[in-house]
Amino acid sequence: MKTDTGLLSSNGYLDGQLLIAMPSMADPRFHRTVIYVCAHSAEGAMGLIVNQRAPNITLPKLLEQLEIKPSGSRPAAMRSTAMAVHTGGPVETSRGFVLHSSDYFAADSTLSINESVCLTATVDILKAIAKGSGPNKAILALGYSGWASGQLEREIQSNSWLCCPANYDIVFDRDLESKYTKALYSLGVDPLHLVGIAGHA
Predict the structure, then answer these.
(1) Tens-digit pLDDT profile for residues 75-88
(2) CATH numeric code, 17-193
(3) Strand duo 17-21 + 161-165: pairing
(4) Which element (helix H / strand E) includes 147?
């Protein structure tokens, strides 16, 4: 499995990076969260929590609500059952976002974040997943995490977040409970010694 280097872009923004919540994180909604930054510019930032399961909803239930029936030659139903629905963040919680591998791309609706990872926010990708023709790796998130201009930078400076290159395997790991620890270890940080570490890497 390839790894996305996730290096800072030449303009200094954090697209394709992971944010790891520090113990100093004041907002309980982001306690021990790992967030994949989908977009970052002077206007603000947008990302998806990748280690927080949405309560009381599964992908099969969601597909049923949308009247999408699994079909096709690939074991689509099995893949749908195994795919968790995430809480992507507190903004627009009724809206779905799919973070996925770049083997799926819809010209009118897919945002290419880097060579490995894309974002699609239309129901068409769910139909493709149900048919077994969707991306090889995918995370479905309800809602997203958003920051106004300069807000994320201030939070990082105040030690609310660590940031690090986004490891492809961590982002799409189905073991949500282990992602926080794995992301810290990717930086060489022992979670037991996390308190007091500077909020940038």
Answers:
(1) 554 455 567 899 99
(2) 3.40.1740.10
(3) antiparallel
(4) strand 138-148
